[in-house]
């Protein structure tokens, strides 16, 4: 499927929905509403032409069907009908579908492709965006998934309402996506809108959109997400008790700290990608230094928010926009009643003028707040490097597990050496003095479980097992719950 290909609503529906399962929820629309000056002959003629050219009676179609055997509700824009614009009839159709999906407790999938509000109907059409937003908000408040796939193009009020509210938001490759349409911008300001800003790929880079997904890849990705989310309500057999730091395990001493730091920086060391591959997982975002996935831990599906070591090794370090996205992901997990598992493996946050002006410090603090106040079980995994505020932002959790040679410190040891000794020569000494290793942190009550397996595969498998056992013992999510802040013994 080429970039910017414009699939019709029916083509996309046939591509996604299991054969023979589609049920339309649409009620035929009536005569067009009068325009602001009371005359609607021209508008009625436009609607009739739109019906003939698009084969649809309105700019959206709604209904329910199965994807991978799981029933879902769907709202699909038809761009060929007056550029997918939303008038009163289309807005009412969307609201009715969202409300029905909520009543029937179905996941809701939205596939907008629209120029925004229907200008022929003016303010009354514009305010439909509020009604749609209210319905979507209620759907999410009921703990039901809302997934969005932004098609080419999606602009204006549609993007500024139901197109931007997804628990997960993917986009079509090359799609034009933005609030202000390029034609409007050029007409108002007399110059073209800057190129490559309102594109799906740029919005992934700026973390407005979670991932770019080819239409042909949608069925498998959506099926996997819906399947894992459906497990939230499935019973899980009790697990064996958690074994915290076996007494027979090899304990790393402070003098080992610098060697451990170097080991966590080895290019071939396993990280987030390998951690997810050890169990059934599906990526929600698949690019950049901070990534999100659904993953099954012994029958318990959790949202994983983690740092990717390979992206960071290439110089793409986490900054304010990534932590804003992490906060949004944590809120989405809270909406859906999903546990949150954070994976910490970072040499540190982006250090730049852009990061400072973007409020890096504030985003670290706010991300920490989101984890502390999350009403769902939270687990943090100290997998390798844990340098500075980027590591701190994902560390607070109800339960904390670490690989034995992982470490956490205010700065990399080299940075600590520069502050204390004004050189880099004392990095090893600072690593030993600061108590940065997982074992030392466990002895002080800051880590709950340490996994001491020397091979990557054994360590990752053991960590996943510990997480599964912890989640089996965790109570159901409580909206009044608060995350335990790490204690430090004197």
Features of the shown structure:
16 strands, elongated, alpha/beta, 20 helices, 7-stranded mixed beta sheet, 39% helix, 2-enoyl-CoA Hydratase, Chain A, domain 1, 2 domains, 490 residues
Lay out the secondary structure.
Elements lengths: L8 H8 L6 E2 L16 H14 L5 E8 L2 E8 L10 H16 L4 E4 L10 H5 L1 H14 L4 E5 L3 E2 H4 L8 E4 L5 E2 L3 H8 L10 H6 L5 E2 L5 H13 L26 H8 L7 H6 L3 E3 L6 E8 L2 E8 L1 H5 L6 H17 L3 E7 L6 H5 L2 H14 L4 E9 L1 H6 L5 E5 L9 H9 L5 H7 L4 H6 L5 E3 L4 H18 L17
Parallel strand pairs: 3-4, 4-5, 5-7, 6-8, 7-9, 12-13, 13-14, 14-15, 15-16
Antiparallel strand pairs: 1-2, 2-3, 10-11, 11-12
Instruction: Say what oligomer this is.
Output: single chain
Report mean pLDDT, rounded to a whole number.
89
User: How many separate domains?
Assistant: 2
Structural class: alpha/beta
Main β-sheet description: 7 strands, mixed
> What is the beta-strand fraction?
15-25%
The strand line-up of the biggest sheet is: 1-2-3-4-5-7-9
Number of helices: 20
- How far is it from the N-terminal to the C-terminal residue, by CA? 61 Å
Enzyme class: transferase
Function: Component of the acetyl coenzyme A carboxylase (ACC) complex. Biotin carboxylase (BC) catalyzes the carboxylation of biotin on its carrier protein (BCCP) and then the CO(2) group is transferred by the transcarboxylase to acetyl-CoA to form malonyl-CoA.
GO molecular function: acetyl-CoA carboxylase activity; ATP binding; carboxyl- or carbamoyltransferase activity; zinc ion binding
EC number: 2.1.3.15
């Amino acid at each position: 499927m080429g970039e910017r290909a414009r699939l019709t609503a029916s083509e996309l529906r046939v591509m996604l929905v299991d054969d023979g399962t589609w049920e339309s929820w649409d009620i035929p629309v009536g005569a067009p509403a009068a325009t602001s000056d009371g005359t609607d002959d021209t508008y009625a003629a436009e609607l009739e032409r739109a019906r003939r050219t698009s084969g649809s009676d309105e700019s959206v179609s709604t209904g329910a069907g199965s994807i991978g055997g799981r029933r879902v509700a769907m709202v699909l824009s038809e761009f060929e009908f007056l550029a997918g614009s939303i008038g009163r009839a289309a807005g009412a159709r969307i609201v009715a579908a969202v409300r029905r999906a909520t009543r029937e407790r179905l996941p809701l999938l939205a596939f907008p492709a629209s120029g925004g509000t229907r200008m022929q109907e003016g303010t009354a059409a514009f305010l439909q965006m509020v009604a749609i937003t209210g319905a979507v908000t209620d759907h999410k408040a009921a703990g039901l998934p809302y997934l969005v796939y932004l098609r080419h193009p999606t602009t204006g009020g549609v993007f500024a309402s139901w197109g931007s509210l997804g628990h997960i938001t993917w986009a079509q490759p090359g799609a034009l996506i933005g609030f202000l349409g390029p034609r409007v911008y050029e007409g108002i300001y007399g110059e073209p809108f800057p190129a490559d800003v309102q594109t799906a790929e740029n919005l992934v880079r700026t973390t407005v959109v979670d991932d770019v997904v080819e239409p042909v890849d949608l069925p498998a990705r959506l099926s996997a997400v819906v399947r894992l989310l459906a497990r939230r309500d499935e019973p899980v057999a009790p697990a064996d008790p958690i074994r915290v730091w076996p007494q027979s395990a090899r304990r790393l001493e402070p003098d080992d700290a610098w060697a451990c730091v170097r080991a966590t920086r080895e290019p071939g060391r396993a990280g987030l990608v390998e951690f997810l591959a050890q169990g059934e997982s599906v990526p929600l975002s698949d690019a950049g230094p901070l990534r999100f996935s659904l993953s099954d831990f012994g029958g318990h599906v959790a949202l994983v928010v983690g740092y990717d070591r390979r992206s960071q090794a290439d110089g793409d370090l986490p900054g304010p926009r990534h932590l804003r996205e992490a906060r949004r992901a944590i809120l989405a997990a809270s909406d859906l009643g999903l546990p949150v598992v954070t994976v910490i493996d970072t040499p540190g946050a982006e250090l730049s003028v852009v990061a400072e002006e973007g409020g890096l410090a504030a985003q670290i603090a706010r991300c920490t707040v989101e984890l502390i106040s999350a009403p769902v079980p939270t687990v943090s995994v100290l997998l390798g490097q844990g340098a500075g505020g980027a590591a701190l932002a994902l560390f607070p959790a109800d339960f904390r597990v670490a690989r034995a040679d992982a470490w956490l410190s205010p700065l990399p040891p080299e940075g600590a050496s520069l502050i204390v000794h004004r050189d880099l020569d004392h990095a090893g000494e600072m690593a030993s003095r600061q108590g940065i290793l997982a074992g030392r942190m466990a002895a002080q009550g800051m880590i709950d479980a340490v996994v001491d397996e020397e091979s990557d595969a054994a360590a990752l498998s053991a960590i996943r097992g510990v997480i599964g056992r912890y989640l089996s013992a965790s109570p159901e999510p409580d909206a009044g719950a608060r995350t335990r802040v790490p204690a430090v013994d004197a």
